[in-house]
Specification:
Length: 49
Amino acid sequence: MEDSSPSFEKTDMAIEKSVQTVFELFDNTPLDSVIDFGKFLWNEKFKIY
């Protein structure tokens, strides 16, 4: 919190971006999987044999 080193802004930015990236990966992956599974089911339901 009281970091006064020469490039503390860059360190803070790197930490913030890495945490944000991890949360986005965990948040988006399940949603993408659900959408992909839904597309698969939709295509199988309306597949003409």
